[in-house]
TrEMBL record:
Belongs to the HARBI1 family. Keywords: Hydrolase, Metal-binding, Nuclease, Nucleus. It comes from the Eukaryota. Its cofactor is a divalent metal cation. This is DDE Tnp4 domain-containing protein. It is found in: Nucleus. Transmembrane segments: none annotated. GO terms for molecular function: hydrolase activity; metal ion binding; nuclease activity. GO terms for cellular component: nucleus. It holds the Pfam family DDE_Tnp_4. Residues 77-227 form the DDE Tnp4 domain.
Amino acid sequence: MVFVTLRYLATGSFLQVIGDVQGMDKGTASRVVSKVIKSLAVHFKELIKMPENGEERTAIRQEFFNIARFPRCIGALDCTHIKIKSPGGADPENYRNRKGFFSYNVQVICDATLKIQNIVCRWPGASHDANIFANSRVRALFETGHFGDSLLVADSGYGIKPYLITPLSRPETQSQHLFNESQIRTRNPVERCFGVWKRRFPILALGIRVAKEKIEPVVVATAALHNLAIIMKDPQPAINNEIEAAVEFINNFDIVPVPVGGQDASNNRTRLLLINYFQDLL
């Protein structure tokens, strides 16, 4: 059962093809895959979780700090598109993204080792990254101080917050350039995470061909297995030209910046303190 499911997730093949290879009909293959995926999705919190205590946060901060001396960071935030078939129903166009294919826009926070700490998979492809974060539980936890003075880093598609640090759009001073360089390098793990995750499980880039209500468990299951592979030090998958082209295409979206006028200037204080911190490093 597990082998059939892993083959399905790792190839993106039709269930009919998977069934033929394993000597079972499509219906049986579908039931087997659904059962294993549901089991993984139910237990995903054991593998996908934000750091919940000071010791865990300190360890993750140090891993991020080692990249480019960016302090207090416990996660790199971004969204990525997961290709799906047309969902049908009354609002299929809500799932058509800016590149013209149907997708879910999936929010991820990862650590410096590319492990996924938080995942939100319920928003259609036309949704803006910033809107997904604004309506997420993890944002509410940061707003209420659940993670202390810890920070997230993200690209300019998000509005700056006291706990969510984005790059400067037009750095001028040496310290501002140093801040931007460090911020960009520190958030790079989430971009690498998306590539490794989709190469491990090409179904995410080639397309998930199941009913809409079954998509979230599939995505969450692959995220949990991705983390398990990192924990077990499983080598990254070899390059496959067809899969690589699909991954590059689906990951290559231009950033849609949050309008400057739509951001609260008072949220800049933490970023200014960080720029001063980098000034002291000069």
